[in-house]
Design a protein that fits this description.
It is built from 16 helices and 15 strands. The chain is an alpha+beta fold. The strands form four sheets. A five-stranded antiparallel sheet has the order 5-4-8-7-6, sandwiched between helices. It has a five-stranded mixed sheet with strand order 10-12-13-15-14, with helices on one face. A three-stranded antiparallel sheet has the order 2-1-3, with helices on one face. The longest helix is centred in the middle third of the chain and has 60 residues, at 343-402. GO terms for molecular function: ATP binding; phosphorelay sensor kinase activity.
């Protein structure tokens, strides 16, 4: 028995060497991914059935106590038996391919065993398909595992030869010859088949890990190359950016040459075939035009399909790149021969095309988002001016009847204010000193109307004059206090504007002794234009200031509204320092400590 076991193990090793080649077949992934269709299932049933037949032919013929180590036994005599490793193919078929593949491989193996004859022929013909079916059913318990663990596969496969030996005893009605055969070949077959299944599954796992490592390496390579080329391509396809990207791609891809085109002409060519005047040459090859039209990768396999022609260039991969859902250009990778274009190069080209296209779409989305943000800020800024102009014109209409001279001065001040406003609103941020000038010009207008009824006190910490802030931030907030906080009041209105240095930026506080904010709109004020409290206010000025602060500096800069216990209203926000301003603030703080 020991000699027979060693002999089976030796021949099982040869079988495993052959079956390991299966792990290198690309179609083998269909079974590993558990996504076989009926054609793939039929194909692999045949393949594993042939593996099982190979395990039979690699077996050892037993005649009584005699062991015949001949290969390729054509048939067995009624008193002969075959100790083999045929169950390796059947069990692996069921564990990897499922019920259909396992049963199919078992049927093929069983029919072959029946054709050989011998004392085990009928039993093998009956039991082998059943064992393939059972292996497929057991595999369902491990459906979460891409490939069942080798130890589990070995343990499950131990029972297959035992069941097959039981079938031999049942079919032969426990005859002395059958009992003697089972005693002789049972243990060696259990050892050879279970160990063989475990080793083959381990081989498959190793092949998968190798493939995953290769895929990870190619993915990392594609990411690295895209990272190198994208800074140029994001600037748009021009002669300069295309030339820089082509040089990067050629260096990283180690191709004979790399060309980049838009949808009409060659923008750059680096490497073999470079010649004066090639930039700006119209696209002439049929495959390039097809790639532009279909958006699919094309492979030029002959020199006649390549542009430009060069003796050292014999093949090319034409990779379309998309932007905004449309083909924006082509990347052409040139090789000396079509033999250099392996499946890995094609897969890499597919990944590179998708990666660059996705990044270009992201870049376009960022540009559009930036443009939309700028447009929205300008729209919000534009809304403030008509709001203030409307209120001022109403005041002028009133002054014309009762104080014509004051109306004239207000009109002059308004012209000065509007000229200043036009220059300020050209940029999203202005220095604080300009914003204070803007506020004082506004107060010069309203003081003509209110005279001694209004007092505005502005306190600003020294050194904050150059801090950046959105234009027309202070004026609308002060205007809100004047026109809505003091509405219906006859006593003196006091407004305090404080600009204080804090660690994170400049804290702005505007408080008054007016009516305060209506309680019912206090929670929503600044989030949207509101109507409430009987004031008739739409809150558009405060809303616009709040939106611009959030857009430019984030939610932390939003306006905070409250009604202090002592009365009136309070608006507070903190405008963060810009990078340079933050450094200056830190330096000034250190100087003070020193």
């Amino acid at each position: 028995m020991q000699h027979l076991t060693l002999l089976l193990m030796e021949r099982m090793g040869l079988l495993l060497l052959i079956t390991f080649i299966l792990t290198r077949i690309p179609q083998f992934r269909y079974l590993l991914d558990r996504r076989p269709d009926w054609r793939t299932g039929l194909t692999f049933s045949l393949v594993f059935g042939l593996v099982s037949i190979g395990g039979t032919y690699a077996g050892v013929t037993i005649t009584g106590e005699t062991v015949n180590s001949s290969f390729l036994v054509a048939s067995l005599q009624p008193e002969e038996a075959m100790a083999d490793s045929a169950l390796i193919g059947v069990m692996v078929a069921g564990l990897l391919g499922g019920v259909a593949v396992g049963t199919g491989a078992g049927l093929i193996s069983g029919i072959h065993a029946y054709s050989l004859g011998g004392i085990t022929g009928v039993a093998d013909a009956v039991s082998t398909p059943i064992l393939g079916l059972l292996a497929g059913l057991v595999a369902r318990f491990f459906a979460e595992e891409r490939v069942i663990a080798p130890v589990k596969a070995l343990f499950i496969s131990v029972f297959a030869p035992i069941l097959q030996m039981g079938a031999v005893l049942i079919v032969n009605e426990s005859s002395p010859a059958a009992i003697h055969t089972v005693d002789l070949i049972g243990v060696p077959m259990v050892a050879a088949n279970s160990v063989g299944v475990g080793i083959l599954v381990a081989m498959i796992q190793a092949a998968m890990k190798e493939e995953e490592r290769a895929a990870a390496s190619e993915t990392q390579r594609a990411l690295h190359i895209a990272e190198m080329a994208l800074p140029f391509l994001k600037q748009g396809l021009t002669f300069e950016t295309a030339e820089a990207a082509a040089n990067v791609l050629r260096r990283e891809l180690r191709a004979s040459a790399v060309a980049i085109t838009d949808t009409k002409q060659i923008l750059a060519h680096a490497g073999t075939g470079m010649m004066p005047g090639i930039q700006g040459t119209p696209i002439a090859s049929e495959l390039s035009r097809k790639a532009v039209q279909t958006g699919e990768i094309q492979i030029a396999r002959t020199k006649e399909q390549i542009q430009p022609h060069h003796p050292a260039i014999g093949a090319a991969i034409i990779v379309p790149i998309r932007s905004g859902g449309q083909v924006a250009g082509l990347i052409k990778l040139y090789y000396p021969s079509v033999r250099q274009i392996r499946p890995v190069e094609e897969a890499f080209a597919q990944g590179l095309s998708k990666l660059i296209s996705i990044q270009l779409d992201i870049a376009m989305a960022e540009q559009l988002r930036s443009l939309m943000k700028d447009a929205e800020l300008k729209a919000l800024q534009a809304q403030i001016n008509p709001h203030f102009l409307f209120n001022t014109l109403n005041a002028i209409v009133t002054l014309i009847r009762i104080k014509p001279e004051a109306a004239r001065r207000v009109t002059v001040q308004l012209g000065h204010y509007m000229r200043m406003n036009l220059t300020m609103t050209q940029a999203p941020l202005v220095p604080l000193y300009k914003e204070l000038e803007h506020l004082h010009t506004y107060l010069g207008i309203v003081n003509i109307r209110f005279e001694d009824q209004l007092s505005v006190d502005c306190q600003c910490d020294p050194g904050l004059e150059s801090v950046s802030m959105p234009p027309s931030t202070l004026q609308p907030l002060v205007e809100n206090s004047i026109h809505h906080g003091f509405k219906g009041r006859t006593d003196r209105g006091d407004i305090h504007v404080e600009l204080r240095r804090v660690a994170s930026g400049v804290r702005i506080v505007i408080k008054d002794n007016g009516n305060g904010f209506p309680v019912e709109i206090l929670e929503t004020l600044g989030a949207s234009p509101v109507t409430g409290g009987g004031s008739g206010s739409t809150g558009i000025g405060v809303y616009n200031v709040n939106r611009r602060l959030i857009h430019l500096f984030g939610p932390e800069a939003r306006l905070k509204f409250s009604n202090p216990p002592e009365g009136g209203a309070r608006i507070e926000c903190t405008i963060p320092y810009q990078a340079e301003e933050r450094r200056e603030a830190i330096d000034e703080s250190n100087d003070r400590r020193g």
